[in-house]
Write a structure and sequence with these properties.
alpha+beta; four-stranded antiparallel β-sheet; 8 helices; disordered N terminus; binds adenosine monophosphate; binds magnesium ion
């Protein structure tokens, strides 16, 4: 068996090509950590007290403990391990689950927040990852249905005792929004919040110009970008095959799963990047649109006034109209096409 892995440290798929430079001391501080299974980077360009960075760290650690699928005592694990019994959790966990149900509904089940029964079978971080047993996959598929989540204010209950929540596709976007709220409260106007490629660009660069953000070249482990996108005050999030995958018998098996089959979604795409106002929306849409594929994503993008960059298996790049003026393809092995 041949297989290949990339580590979570290389998973960041959206790259900041150039932030501000030339500032020193308290004016250009960065908090970096490895949390949520990825690299967290919060850079504050404005002058700020050390306590502001410390506040970012505390928020990240709080959410990591709350939403983790693997930590036994996280609120998500407590719901998953309750065998269908009601579980009281924090209001924030309820909000996140409600957002997950919202994406599940808006995508007609292409996104499903109860994908946990399937995703827990696929271990992309194993030493020698392999395709799970077909019978186990088909059994897991029968336990995926977001309609089985019952929220009565609080507690939360899974009506199917074998159902499992997986907030991996939405938590980082939600947390990025909370970090932005916190930084705004602290009087910060210019910052870059990057949770493993889930980016919120707060304000513009200090000189008033746009940030220049790149989308990673698929499977390039050096993080080379294939594009640059100029933007200010926006969230930009990529869902991509290459962020977590293995290869077996010449075929790529990746982490964005089709709830109907239990296998990696096969929509002809390598990545989808979403640009819109809110982190939670970009994160949910990027995963949903990946599963739906290019054509079926368009109505969703229109409804939520989101812009997108699709990279296809044929090395074609499709950019929605609202992004074209800010977008440059920088890698000649990819071709920008009109659809
Ligand atoms: P993202 O990188 O935001 O696209 O999220 C991918 C993660 O979401 C995966 O690693 C899984 O934990 C989870 N996931 C995979 N497929 C789906 C799906 N169809 N619906 C909801 N969550 C998913
Ligand atoms: Mg997502």
């Amino acid at each position: 068996m041949r297989y290949r892995r990339i580590t979570a440290l290389l998973a960041a798929s959206v790259l900041i090509l150039s932030g501000c430079s030339g500032f020193s001391g308290k004016r250009n501080q960065t908090y970096t950590d490895t949390l949520f299974d990825t690299v967290v980077n919060v850079r504050i360009y404005d002058a700020a007290d050390d306590s502001v960075l410390k506040g970012c760290e505390e928020l990240c650690k709080k959410y990591d403990a709350m939403f983790s699928r693997t930590a036994e005592d996280s609120e998500i694990s407590r719901i998953n391990n309750a065998g269908g019994a009601p579980v009281e959790v924090s209001e924030e966990t309820i909000t996140l689950i409600e957002k997950g149900i919202y994406y599940s509904e808006m995508s007609n089940g292409a996104f499903d927040i109860t994908i946990g029964s399937i995703s827990s079978l696929w271990d992309f971080k194993a030493e020698s990852p392999s395709i799970p047993d077909a019978a186990a996959i088909s059994d897991a598929v029968s336990h995926v249905n977001y309609k089985n989540i019952m929220i009565q204010d609080n507690p939360v209950r899974l009506l199917d005792p074998y159902a499992k929540l997986d907030v991996g596709a939405v938590a980082k976007g939600y947390i990025a929004d909370r970090l932005r709220d916190y930084l705004e409260e602290e009087g910060i106007d210019h910052a870059m919040i990057d949770l493993g490629g889930n980016i919120i660009a707060m304000g513009s660069k200090l000189d008033g110009s746009d940030y220049n953000i790149g989308i990673q070249k698929p499977f390039d482990e050096n993080g080379t970008p294939i594009t640059s996108v100029k933007l200010s005050d926006k969230s930009i999030v990529t869902s991509g095959v290459y962020q977590r995958y293995f290869e077996q018998d010449g075929k790529i098996y990746h982490h964005i799963l089709d709830p109907k089959t239990g296998y990696p979604a096969d929509s002809g795409l390598i990545s989808v990047t979403i640009v819109c106002e809110k982190g939670w929306l970009s994160d949910g849409l990027s995963t949903a649109c990946f599963v739906l594929g290019y054509e079926d994503s368009l109505p969703l993008l229109e409804t939520y006034q989101a812009e997108a960059v699709f990279v296809t298996e044929d090395k074609e790049v499709i950019v929605t109209d609202g992004l074209k003026d800010m977008f440059t393809l920088t890698d000649s092995s990819y071709e920008q096409v009109e659809e």
